[in-house]
Write a structure and sequence with these properties.
The protein has 12 helices and 13 strands. By secondary structure, it is of the alpha+beta class.
C-alpha cells in the first residue's frame, strides 16, 4: 500500500491511499460465504442458498461494508507508520485515475497540534486562602437550629413580624383580571426570608390575624414569570394565621438530635468545624485550580483542531437539550441551539485539555494508585458509611475515570503552583462560600 501525506493548512492534512481491488474482492467473497451458511431465504433450506443468489441479494451491502473497513484499516496503519496523532475522524472519498487493479482514496483529517508552554517561572497565579472562624461555626449553628425550628400560633392581637410563619389567602389582578399563579388559599411563607417579593413581604409584615389589605405590587422586569414581568398588579391579602418560630437551644439535646458522637456542645462545634474545613478545602482547591488553568492558557501557544472543537460543541449542545428535556420542555431534542452560544467555552475546554495533556505527558503527572485511593477516601469521609461510598466508586469504571481526571488536575495544579510566581490573598469564609 502506497501512501502520500500533504499539508493543506495548519493542522489539516490529506492522505492518498492506494488499495488493490483484489484485496477488497477476496474479503467480500469470504464474508458472502460466511453469510451463505446462515442466511434464510424463501424456497431454500438454511445454509443451502446458492452463492450467486446470496451475492445478488447482499453483494452491494457487503461490498460497501468491506470498503469502509479496509479503507479505515489502511488509514489507521498509514497514520501509525507516519507517526501522525489524528484528531477526530477522517473524511474519506474515492478518487478517479487509479492504476489498473487498484483503487484510490483521499483522506482529509486533522492532527493534534504541537503545544508550546512557556517557562512557568514567569507565570503569575492569584492563590487564595480562607479560614473557618468561630463566627462561621456560629452561623452554621443558626442554620441547623432554623432547620429544626417549631412554630406556635400567636395571639390574635399580635402582628406578623420577621421569622413568623403566616398563612394567607391572596388574589392579584392586573388591569382587573386575575392572572395565572396570582391566586392562592391557605398559602404559607416565612416573613423576612425572601420567599416573596419585598413589596409583598412589606405589606404582610405588621398585619394581624383576620386582617385584610389591598396593595399595589410592581413585578420586576426580570421576574421569572414572563407574563407578569414589568407589570403592576393589585393584591388583596387576608391573614388567616400567624405562627411564631421557636429555635431549639444550643445544648446536648441538639447535639444528640444531630447524631454527634460526642453529645456535647463542644463536640457539636468540633464536628461543624471539621465539616466546614472539608468544604473550605474543596472550594479553595477548585478556585485555585481555576487560577492555575487560566495561567496555563495564558502561557501556552497552540492551534485548535476544528474537529475537536466541533465534537465538544456537539457534546455541550446534547447536554443542553437533555437539560431542557429534564425540565419538561416539549421537543427538547429538536430545539435549535446555535453553535455560537457554546463556541467560546468549547474552544477553551479543548485548548485547556490539550495543554494539560501535554504538561502531564512531559512531566509524568499521571494519577498514581495511592492518590486515587486517598482522594476517594476523602470524598467518602463526609458520609455515614464511608466504606460503602468507597465501594461505590471502585465498582464503576466511569466513576473511577472521573476521580482520575480530578487527581490529574490536582497534580497539574500543584506542579504549576510550585513553579509559578504566587500572589497570595486571604479572603473571608463568607466570601469563599458565596461563590458557586
Amino acid at each position: 500500500m502506497a501512501v502520500t501525506v500533504e499539508t493543506l493548512e495548519k493542522l489539516e492534512r490529506k492522505m492518498t491511499l492506494t488499495l488493490p481491488v483484489n484485496t477488497i474482492q477476496s474479503e467480500v467473497d469470504v464474508r458472502l460465504k460466511r453469510l451463505a451458511r446462515t442466511v434464510k431465504m424463501d424456497g431454500f433450506r438454511p445454509g443451502k442458498v446458492p452463492m450467486n443468489v446470496v451475492a445478488q441479494r447482499y453483494g452491494y451491502s457487503v461490498h460497501y461494508e468491506v470498503m469502509n473497513d479496509k479503507v479505515g484499516e489502511a488509514f489507521s496503519v498509514a497514520a501509525n507508520e507516519a507517526k501522525l496523532r489524528v484528531a477526530g475522524q477522517p473524511r474519506i472519498s474515492e478518487k478517479e485515475g487509479a492504476p489498473e487493479g487498484d483503487l484510490l482514496f483521499d483522506a482529509i483529517f486533522e492532527v493534534y497540534p504541537d503545544v508550546k508552554i512557556a517557562d512557568l517561572a514567569g507565570a503569575e497565579v492569584a492563590k487564595v486562602s480562607a479560614e473557618v472562624s468561630e463566627a462561621a461555626i456560629d452561623k452554621t449553628l443558626d442554620i441547623l437550629r432554623k432547620q429544626r425550628r417549631t412554630f406556635a400560633q400567636r395571639a390574635m392581637d399580635l402582628a406578623a413580624q420577621d421569622n413568623d410563619r403566616v398563612t394567607i389567602d391572596f388574589e392579584g389582578k392586573i388591569e382587573g383580571e386575575t392572572f395565572p399563579g396570582g391566586k392562592a388559599e391557605a398559602f404559607q411563607f416565612l416573613v423576612g426570608e425572601g420567599q416573596m417579593l419585598k413589596e409583598f413581604e412589606d405589606a404582610v409584615r405588621g398585619m394581624k390575624s383576620g386582617e385584610s389589605k389591598t396593595f399595589p405590587l410592581s413585578f420586576p422586569e426580570d421576574y421569572h414569570g414572563k407574563d407578569v414581568a414589568g407589570k403592576q398588579a393589585d393584591f388583596m391579602v387576608t391573614v388567616k394565621k400567624i405562627e411564631a418560630a421557636h429555635l431549639p437551644e444550643i445544648n446536648e439535646a441538639l447535639a444528640k438530635s444531630l447524631g454527634i458522637a460526642d453529645e456535647t456542645v463542644d463536640g457539636l462545634r468540633v464536628d461543624i468545624r471539621k465539616n466546614l474545613e472539608r468544604e473550605v478545602k474543596f472550594r479553595l482547591l477548585a478556585r485555585n485550580k481555576n487560577a492555575v488553568m487560566d495561567a496555563l492558557l495564558a502561557n501556552a501557544e497552540l492551534d485548535l483542531p476544528k474537529s475537536s472543537v466541533q465534537a465538544e460543541l456537539d457534546r455541550m449542545i446534547e447536554a443542553a437539550r437533555a437539560d431542557l428535556k429534564q425540565r419538561g420542555i416539549k421537543d427538547a431534542d429538536k430545539a435549535p441551539i446555535p453553535d455560537d452560544i457554546f463556541r467560546p467555552q468549547a474552544e477553551k475546554r479543548v485548548r485547556l485539555g490539550l495543554v494539560v495533556a501535554e504538561l502531564v505527558r512531559t512531566n509524568e503527572l499521571q494519577a498514581k494508585p495511592e492518590q486515587l485511593k486517598a482522594h476517594i477516601e476523602e470524598l467518602a469521609g463526609s458520609y455515614e458509611k464511608p466504606q460503602d461510598v468507597v465501594r461505590w466508586y471502585l465498582s464503576d469504571n466511569s466513576r473511577m475515570a472521573e476521580v482520575e481526571a480530578v487527581v490529574i488536575e490536582n497534580n497539574v495544579t500543584d506542579f504549576v503552583l510550585a513553579k509559578a510566581k504566587i500572589n497570595e490573598k486571604s479572603i473571608s469564609f463568607d466570601e469563599l462560600m458565596a461563590q458557586n
